[in-house]
Amino acid sequence: MATSTMRDSLKQLARRSIGETSFDAPLRNHSWWGIGGPADLLVQPTSLEQLCTLIKSLHEFQLPHLFIGDGSNLLFDDVGVRGVVVKLGRNFSSYEISGRKITAQSGVFVPRLIRNIGRAGLTGLEHAIGIPGTLGGLVLMNGGSLRQGIGTHVQQVHAINSMGEMIRFDRDSCQFSYRKSALQNAGLVIARVDLQCSTGDPVRIQQRMRDILRSRRKKFPRRHPNCGSVFLSDPKNYDQFGPPGAIIERCGLKTLRIGDAMIPQQHANFIVNLGRASSADVLSLVRTVRQDVFDKTGFLLNCEVRYVQPDGQQVPAHEACDDLQLT
Ligand SMILES: Cc1cc2nc3c(=O)[nH]c(=O)nc-3n(C[C@H](O)[C@H](O)[C@H](O)COP(=O)(O)OP(=O)(O)OC[C@H]3O[C@@H](n4cnc5c(N)ncnc54)[C@H](O)[C@@H]3O)c2cc1C
């Protein structure tokens, strides 16, 4: 529960022109894991002006806050977030394709954007067709599949700093590397992304997307809520150990269950919510898997998924349960 001073500031904030607001919003409705207590205030801006007003106001009121996209890579705590959660999603998702260039607001849902880029006869981003998040989240994480990342096709990122000022980053200054970018932990919100693709045959591009989706459907669990791959692949050790799913499977950890969080039979790098999993269930399972894999192989897995602490700060999920016996 927020303090009464914070509560007053939140009420004043919600009266400004900042977009859709909702008090005590259950975060489980904004995470693909279906886990998470209430955010004191959830705000969904619908324009750049509203976003800038919101950021300046957050600074003015000194309110703890965090920015999210579709919550497909986030574990919220069961107690929720004391402060403001700003969601850039469906309300902030217009885009334009012109020639080989795509200009998009960060809240656009990636599969929708990629499908329409393909229909326009532009190629290069097919690998991202099945990634269920927003463009902002994808760029921040340099997400991708089939060992590719979105960063390769980024031309420019338009981000806003904590003072409400727009800053432009070209691809080099984003410093994209495997699931990393300089935009992470920089206190920035991504507002707009400019992408550039090559031209190709729309029929072939769409066929490739269908193939990718078919293969993902076979590989990944779909029955229970999950946040995709939990542990990061380590390019340095890939040849020796293989991907995290293979390592975890070799350690015999498929179907390991803590509370309602379980490593599914279908893919060992996922954790599914069987119904009422808590954030503590997921973190305990992460900890147990890391410890067991380390004991059996000497390999230390790190998380791709980020845990959101009650104060709104984020850390890779393994850092929230980092009391392993590493001897
Ligand atoms: C079934 C499934 C399959 C998946 N497969 C893949 C895959 O193949 N490859 C892959 O890379 N990922 C995959 N993921 C993970 C996830 O979809 C990606 O990381 C995605 O890009 C996250 O986007 P999001 O909008 O959901 O971000 P969120 O989960 O909401 O946030 C992720 C991070 O981005 C930040 N963020 C979000 N939007 C903004 C913004 N506009 N400005 C600043 N910061 C922002 C958040 O603060 C957070 O740190 C999968 C997830 C699921 C559920």
From TrEMBL:
Active site: 179, 229 (proton donor), 304
Gene3D superfamilies in alphabetical order: 3.30.465.10, UDP-N-acetylenolpyruvoylglucosamine reductase, C-terminal domain, Uridine Diphospho-n-acetylenolpyruvylglucosamine Reductase, domain 2
Keyword Transmembrane helix: no
UniProt GO MF annotations: FAD binding; UDP-N-acetylmuramate dehydrogenase activity
Biological processes, Gene Ontology terms: cell division; cell wall organization; peptidoglycan biosynthetic process; regulation of cell shape
UniProt xrefs under InterPro entries: FAD-bd_PCMH, FAD-bd_PCMH-like_sf, FAD-bd_PCMH_sub1, FAD-bd_PCMH_sub2, MurB, MurB_C, MurB_C_sf, Oxid_FAD_bind_N
UniProt family annotation: Belongs to the MurB family.
Entry protein name: UDP-N-acetylenolpyruvoylglucosamine reductase
